[in-house]
Each structure stands twice: as structure tokens, then as C-alpha cells.
């Protein structure tokens, strides 16, 4: 969601177009609806011209989200873009496709269901909604348990690592749940299972583990977390469960790390979310939330509506949403199959290895990502006294590359990192080209630093780095015409 602030002065709130001038005599308002209509050709050209200033999605290495699909799937998306998914009775085939996707994904995650049983899950608008639904289920189940035991039920908490995405913070704030975070440390950028279990108490509704950290792509050790939590539950008499946020890794681990135990094979894992629009290979935005069994989703959270036709059970935060991405997800699952996904994920991993080797061989950087996990390369500067990663990524922009730079969460704020995510459409040739362009940037940065006499190594404090980050993003936002993205 973008929160836009329109600051208009005289003359600033108008736009014009060379093409539109064939049809429009006066400039068009920027922040008000025009009084008159304009020809469709002019409207298209005006909008298309401004969109040319956007970055190229294929070169956006900040994003985990799919930026390319096969033309056949593009056609299916276009043909179904006018279908509202909530009209289940009117579009029963689309509803059936969603149910098939839920069951396929549940089996992929080793849910304890038979071949003829129906899995418990739902399609969502990305993993953010999926996490909200999972959190609500845990909260309600915990409340019911505490009420039945005659205990206070007004102070629930959830345990996570400090590396969680903002959607977990949103869940905690929106639904009044205390967020207990395991702090990070230099060299260890995921949740420590032992420290997480130490934070668990009787009011903990669940521990959230991440399969594919946004910061460095690393998979958290869900197996160790499960084993430690089993022991603590046995000692205390509690039954604290686990949720796995597999937004990025859920469509990776089953195919290239099948021996890794992180899913419903572990008894305390009660729900898993995954983003279909990431390595599920579908355009934004579609996500999935799967529960272990019916008992893990309290029935009182499910609504039954009938004013659109037959009885429709629903558990979502929104109402209307497009059908296109669900149909696209079904296309990918049946089109690629297990072996197709496996080939793509292995290729992404191989391309990430090429990029990783190229970055490491330059000698400028310290790698913070791992060989296994989400196919990405995250790294920090060995010496940030002459220039910062924020200046490096800014210089890369002129070659068209969009690369993010950020500082780690507490207690590793002094580490500033840049990260390159490898998706299906990032070829070996692009990886080699990126290495070449990055080398050019580093040589130029060195030459510039030498020219201006920056030789002395001064280790920057967390406050100095934070100030640099703030200044960088304020400048970036200002260039985006006062649009604040959240």
C-alpha cells in the first residue's frame, strides 16, 4: 500500500504530454479528477510515458517476487482478470482450482492427510494475509485453552527472531499480541532456537520460524526448535506450537533439500505459509496458508455466507480479490510438476553460486549469505571507511540494476549489507554481466576515494550507519515524488 502526500503549488499540480497535445489543449491536473474526458490513446500515452521512469522488474534484484511467466499463463491471467474470486458459486471451477492447489501444497509439505482426505488451507493475498490468519488461529486457540483452565487470557505473546518481516510486527500490533524477539548477533543472522525457547512462557501462542530469511536467505533450524520445544512442553505441561513462515523457502526446500525436516513431519508444526508469488513462480499477489489438521483452525473463525448463492465457508481478511493468480498457480503446479520445479530451483541455486563466487573473488566483500537456502547473495563491505554499500548500490543504478542495501536488525545494526536475489528469469549471462558491472563500480569507487584522500580506516558506529541509511532513503523517497511505500 502506498501512502501518497500531494504537495501542490501553483503550476506544480498540472501535467502535459506531447502526444496528448494533439487532443488536449490545456494541461491536465495531477491531483484532481479532470473536468473533461480525454481520448483513450492520449490517456494511455500519458500513463505509459511516466511508467517508463519505473525500474525494469527483470533487473530488480531487491524483489523475491516473480517477474516473468510463460505466455500461455499470461493468457490465462488476462482471460480471468475480470473474475472476482469471492463469487465461488458463480465461478465453481476457479474454486476447485484453489482447492486443488491447497491439497497439492499440503502434500508437498507432508501434511498428515490421506490421498482421499481434504487438506485445510486457503489462498491469500500474499504471505502477509496468510500470517495474519495463522496468528489469529493460534491466538484464538490459546484463548480458548486459557479460558477453559480459568486462567487470564488477555496477554498473549509470540516468539520470533528479530529478522522477521514487518508483517509479523503488523500482526502483533493490529491484533494486540506482544512480540518477543530473539536478537541477532554478528555472524548469526537468524533466530537462535535455544534463545527462542528460553523466551517461551505460558502466554506464548506460538514460536514463528522462518524458512528463508529476508536478510540473508538462510533457513532457520526448525528441527532443533521443535526438539527443544517438545522438551520444554513436557517439562512445563504447556503445548506451545510452531508456525513456519516459508514465504520464500516453501517452494524451494521440498525440491532441492528434501532431506531437510522443517514441515509437518515435525509434530509441533501446526501451520505453514508460503508465497505463491515468490518461488511458487506466480505474479504478485498470491499466498497460501496450510494447517496441519482441522483442529488447528478454530471453527469460530470461519464465516459462512450465502448471499452470493450456495453456502460458502470463508476465512480471509479481505472479501473481493482477483482469480487470476490462483489460476496461474494451478497452471504452474500442473505445468511444471515436481521435476520442473526442481530443475528451476537447482538452476537458480547454480546461478547464485556463480554470482557468489564472482562477488567473493573481487576481494572487496564479506559474504553473509549461505551456500544453502534461498538463492541469493548477500554481502557487506570489508572496509566501509572510504564508501558505503549505499553508495555502491546507487552507482549500480546507472547500469539498470536495482539492488537493495540495508542494516541488520538489533543487535547487529552496525552491519550494512547489499543483497541480490536470483529468480527464474535471472540467467547465467545476466549473473556474469552483473559481476562485470559491479567490478567497474568498485574500481571507480576506489579511484574516487583515492582522489579525495579517504585512506584512514574509521569504523563507523551504529548511529552513523543509521544516519546514512535515513539520509539515503529520504533522498530516494524525495525522488519518488513524495510517495511513501509501506
From TrEMBL:
Which residues are listed as membrane-spanning? none
- Positions of post-translational N6-(pyridoxal phosphate)lysine modification: 278
Check the record and name the InterPro entries matching this protein.
Answer: Glutamate_decarboxylase (IPR010107), PyrdxlP-dep_de-COase (IPR002129), PyrdxlP-dep_Trfase (IPR015424), PyrdxlP-dep_Trfase_major (IPR015421)
Q: What is its EC number?
A: 4.1.1.15
Q: Which reaction does it catalyse?
A: L-glutamate + H(+) = 4-aminobutanoate + CO2
Q: Which UniProt keywords apply?
A: Decarboxylase, Lyase, Pyridoxal phosphate
User: Which family does this protein fall into?
Assistant: Belongs to the group II decarboxylase family.
- Protein name (database record): Glutamate decarboxylase
Q: Which organism is it from?
A: Triticum aestivum (Wheat)
Lineage of producing organism: Eukaryota, Viridiplantae, Streptophyta, Embryophyta, Tracheophyta
